Amino acid sequence: GCMRRAARRDANEAPIVTACESAGFKMLDFGKCGWGIPDRLALRVIQEFEYFWCWVEIKAPGGTLRETQRMLRDLWEPSGHWIEARTPEQAVADLERLYRKAVEASE
Question: What is the pTM of this model?
Answer without folding.
Answer: 0.90
